[in-house]
Amino acid sequence: MAVPLPDWSSLRLRRSLNTTIPAVTASPLALQANAVGTHTTAASAAVAAKSITRKSDKATAKAWTKVSFTGKTSGIARNTVVQVQRFENGKWVNFPATTKVTSKATYPVWVKSGRVGVNKFRVLSAKTASASVNVNITK
Fold first, then answer.
1. Is the pLDDT of residue 23 over 60?
2. CA angle (82, 91, 53) in 5-degree steps
3. Does the pLDDT of residue 132 top 50, yes or no?
4. Residue 19 — pLDDT band, cuts 50, 70, 90?
5. 105 with 76: CB under 8 angstroms?
6. 3-class SS letters over the chain
7. 137 burial class (0-12, 13-18, 19+ CB within 10 angstroms)?
8. Torsion of the alpha carbons at 39, 43, 47 and 49, rounded to the nearest 10
9. Residue 46 and which of 59, 107, 118, 137 are 20 to 30 A apart at CA?
């Protein structure tokens, strides 16, 4: 014996963003399938935001000594490459130092520079750049 289904045509559902979902004129199973949409909410957009921080262990270093950078990432996947860049002649240039984002969303990397004077560095990962830091390299 078939059980009659309720008339769903007058049903109006609301999402958390107070937008009205069109009325569904089908069975409860169809209602469930149609209720799951591919929309972006404020919460999912916040999760997708990417950021990367950078800390330097030295503000001044002698030429060719190690300067370490560490930092945290957010919204950047594990094992994504972190590239150190140096500001040269008005543009950011890849420096020969890379590492990968760890499972704890952190990274460690170090550089050695023989360019005496102020060197401006930053790190870049997943098209997201950190703030720059000035490291004064001395003889």
1. no
2. 35
3. yes
4. very low
5. yes
6. CCCCCCCHHHCCEECCCCCEECCCCCCHHHHHHHHCCCCCCHHHHHHHCCEECCEECCCEEECCCEEEEEEEEECCCCCCEEEEEEEECCEEEEEEEEEECCCCCEEEEEEECCCCEEEEEEEEECCEECCCEEEEEEC
7. buried
8. 80
9. 107
| Dist CA 98 CA 109 (whole Å) | 7
Confidence of residue 18 (pLDDT cuts 50, 70, 90): very low
Cβ partners under 8 Å of residue 72, min gap 6: 52, 53, 105, 106
Closest listed residue to residue 88, CA positions, set 128, 110, 119: 119
pLDDT in tens, 109-118: 999 999 999 9
Per-residue pLDDT, 34: 43
**105 dihedral zone (left: phi>0; alpha: psi -120 to 50; beta):** left
Model's pTM, two decimal places? 0.66
Question: CATH second-level architecture of 50-138?
Answer: Sandwich (2.60)
